[in-house]
Specification:
This protein is of the alpha/beta class and 329 residues long. Strands 1, 2, 3, 4, 5, 6, 7, 8, 9, 10 and 11 form an eleven-stranded mixed beta sheet that branches. It contains ten helices and eleven strands. The N terminus is likely disordered. The structure holds S-adenosylmethionine and magnesium ion (MG). Its main location: mitochondrion.
């Protein structure tokens, strides 16, 4: 049974790629214009959308994750810090005064920013029916930037008109984000808070769009983290997650080259075992009631030193999903 039909019409226009992911779910990734994939979920393996031969014969790379039991629902009244990984936080705390040094340890995030803002702008404009040519297309939208760090992404979102809340568990990051945002009256409207997504869930906060960029690979429990992101998203709202693929190419480039050869990032920034493949991310978001509808990769051009959007999700990628409305009896 297909759980998503909205993008049916794209099938006629685009080449299709199928991935078998586990015993009971399939993803149908449809190559679409603008270097993006559109995604359909099939939850019944007994009636796949095309012949089984269309599916990848390779087994899922992380079968144990794909077959893991569904995470418990977040208890809004319980105090939980399921996303906090103290070792990861110590890494960010150690380099927190370099957030706005575009040649420092966060250089890759500065370089990535135009491409991820472009993806977020186009997907949110489509979803919320905003004019992408408008100067402030996000006017009136409440957005939370979860794991905002120094505010590299929060600031352009505020400039696009959104009412932005930036949260991060490292207090030093929030202080630096605050000081930097206050340099410009437009970004000084950002509300920064040292907290976690699960704490905001406890406070019953909700946002039109929830963004967690380059954070999920640093949290203790990605599935519980996605549950929190979903709980923070209003029904029919948007959730955007970007991260690094657990592929051999990502190991060679994002870890070996970036950390050990080019020294873009401190050694040990990323743990191979903490990375998620796009299929795994789509599944855990789906289990959290977020239906991923669009995905894009980021590719780095060593000649220009710039990143751009691509259909190559083998290293860095970003996913846009919508919160499935719960049916009430
Ligand atoms: C690689 S940085 C990304 C910063 C920002 N999203 C960006 O892309 O520019 C990851 C950030 O997530 C924060 N973080 C990690 N785990 C967190 C958690 N459980 N709750 C909130 N923030 C967290 C870290 O402190 C760090 O600032
Ligand atoms: Mg990272």
């Amino acid at each position: 049974m297909a759980t998503k039909f909205r993008i049916n019409q794209l099938r006629a226009l685009s080449s299709t790629v199928f991935h078998g992911i586990g015993d009971s779910s399939y993803l149908h990734l449809i190559r679409a214009p603008q270097n993006m994939y559109h995604i359909r979920h099939f939850s019944d393996a007994s009636s796949p959308p095309l012949s089984p031969a269309s599916y990848s014969s390779a087994p899922p790379q992380n079968a144990e994750l794909l077959t893991a039991p569904r995470p418990e629902k977040i208890n809004r009244n319980a105090s939980t810090t399921s996303s906090v990984n103290q070792i990861e936080l110590a890494k960010f705390s150690a380099i927190s005064d370099t957030w706005w040094d575009s040649e420092g340890p966060f250089k890759p995030l500065h370089a990535l920013n135009p491409s991820r803002v472009s993806f977020i702008r186009s997907t949110l404009c489509r979803h919320f029916r905003r004019d992408p040519c408008s100067v402030r297309p996000f006017e009136g939208l409440k957005i939370v930037d979860v794991g905002c760090g120094g505010g590299i992404l929060s600031e352009p979102l505020a400039r696009l008109g959104a009412t932005v809340t930036g949260i991060d568990i490292v207090d030093k990051n929030i202080k630096i984000a605050r000081v930097h945002a206050d340099l410009d009256p437009v970004t000084s409207t950002i509300e920064y808070c040292c907290t976690t997504a699960e704490n905001l869930v406890e406070q019953q906060k909700e946002f039109d769009a929830v963004i967690a960029s380059e954070v999920i690979e640093h949290v203790a429990d990605p599935a519980a983290f996605c549950q929190s992101l979903a709980a923070l998203t209003v029904p029919n709202g948007a959730t955007v997650v970007s991260t690094i693929n657990r592929s051999m190419r990502a190991f060679a480039t994002a870890i070996v080259a970036a950390e050990y050869i080019l020294h873009w990032l401190p050694r040990g920034t990323h743990q191979w075992s903490s990375l998620l493949t796009p299929e795994e991310l789509v599944l855990i978001l789906q289990r959290a009631s977020i239906s991923v509808e669009e995905m894009a990769g980021f590719v780095y051009n060593p000649l220009t030193g710039q990143w751009s959007l691509s259909d190559d999700t083998s290293v860095n990628y970003i996913a846009f999903g919508t919160k499935i409305s719960q049916q009430t009896d």
